[in-house]
Amino acid sequence: CTKYKPRFHNLTPPKSPDNDVLAESDHGAARAEPFKGRKVHDMFSWLASRHRQQPKMIAISENEMRKAASTNLPMAMRFRILKETSKESVGVYHSHIHGRGLFCLRDIEAGEMVIEYAGE
């Protein structure tokens, strides 16, 4: 139907191909360029989703929080928490045995996940 005009979607007329000038690619061909639109996959992005119900906050002590973090979470999340808090948990100090040593700065609870330091 040639007389029909849409109410909501106004279509723009197609451009003529004479006006389009294609820019030359730095890599020689468009297929040779790396894809730049992909985002790094975050395994826990679902936690930040606005569609997810936020958990209720309960005030607990730091000691109880460490116990909960080390026992109730999946291994991947335990490892992520351990990576984030490792700088507060251990420190490098003078050692009489090897000259330098890795020392614990806080109490480690039973069952809490730790990363072994080989020292090599």
UniProtKB/TrEMBL annotation:
Residues 24-34 have a biased composition (Basic and acidic residues). GO terms for molecular function: histone H3K4 methyltransferase activity. It comes from the Eukaryota. Residues 1-34 are annotated as: Disordered. GO terms for cellular component: histone methyltransferase complex. The keyword Cell inner membrane does not apply. The keyword Manganese does not apply. InterPro entries: SET_dom_sf. This is SET domain-containing protein. It comes from Bracon brevicornis. The lineage of its organism: Eukaryota, Metazoa, Ecdysozoa, Arthropoda, Hexapoda.
